[in-house]
Design brief:
The chain is α/β, with parallel strands linked by helices and about 325 residues long. It has helices at about 5-15, 20-25, 30-45, 60-85, 100-120, 130-140, 185-190, 205-215, 225-235, 280-290, 295-305, 310-320, and strands spanning about 50, 55-60, 95-100, 120-130, 145-150, 160-165, 170-175, 195, 220-225, 240-245, 255-260, 270-275. The chain has 3 domains: about 5-85, Arc Repressor Mutant, subunit A (Orthogonal Bundle); about 90-160 and about 270-320, Periplasmic binding protein-like II (D-Maltodextrin-Binding Protein, domain 2, 3-Layer(aba) Sandwich); about 170-260, D-Maltodextrin-Binding Protein, domain 2 (3-Layer(aba) Sandwich), CATH 3.40.190. It starts with a helix and ends in a 6-residue tail after the last helix.
Length: about 325
Amino acid sequence: MKLHQLKYLVAIVENNFNITTAAEKIYTSQPGISKQLRLLEDELDLRIFERSGKQLIGLTALGEDVVKHARRALQEVENIKRISQDKNQVESGSFSLATTQTQAKYVLPQVFKRFHARYPNLQIDIQHGSAEQMSDQLDKKQIDFAIASDNTQLSPDIIKVPCYHWDRVIIFPQDHPLGDLTKPTLEDLARYPIITYKEPTVGESSLVKSMKAKGLKPNIVFTARDADVIKTYVQNGMGIGIVASMAFNPKEDQDLIGYSAKGILPRCTTWLAFNKNLLLRRYMYCFIELFAPHITREWLESYINKDAAYENRFIQANNKSPLPMH
């Protein structure tokens, strides 16, 4: 068994079992990959892929396990390289992160400004996506970090670190009836069409849960992952909006009124996640400390080495004793 065979195997899986596309992505030939795949299956004496004729259509049950361990083996090889790079203070290469539009536009610019000044030779790749997409990218080690704020359950191989809390803001045009109220209630919000973030794929949003608890049904007419899209629709009189507090600036959004949802809706928690099999480089610890200054390298290493029960106790403790507010 050779490392390049494992690399080919993972490339096939990550390119929807299309050998030609996999070969193009890793700059090799389709016949070469096919040959190495046959040699690997012969050596292991098992079928890794399900086939329809000559076409690969999926993984066998044993193939799933083989690919899982292949990814881990390739990551360990990468980790060895990272040890050498850190020791020799190599500060070039790439840094990848997936996050939401709100984080990318309203939170991360100042963080990356300082990070880039410290590591100017790093190529930084910022991707947008849903929490489910980020989770899949973390599992496949396609990104270094993910930053999001929902309650998505991640796989056991992912370390999820809560970083800070934030409240939402209820926004509406200057002439909206809500502007006559000192403090809107959930009952008030239920009277109007609502434009807010897209609900999670699994379960209900905290907005829906909060209203259901009071016997109310929100009239959600539009959803989006982009806070600026939500604000645009509110500005066009299509409903009231609910966005993250950092996405609303009274000086820039002068045609809108914003009321804090503190006490009306539960606070949200932003988390940072990474694959536990990833060896964190020095610059990765630096990024985490810039993003969440209260998280030190010493604390994070202790957190990583604790078991899942410890993580649950930590999160519960921080829900009772809040993390910093953004």
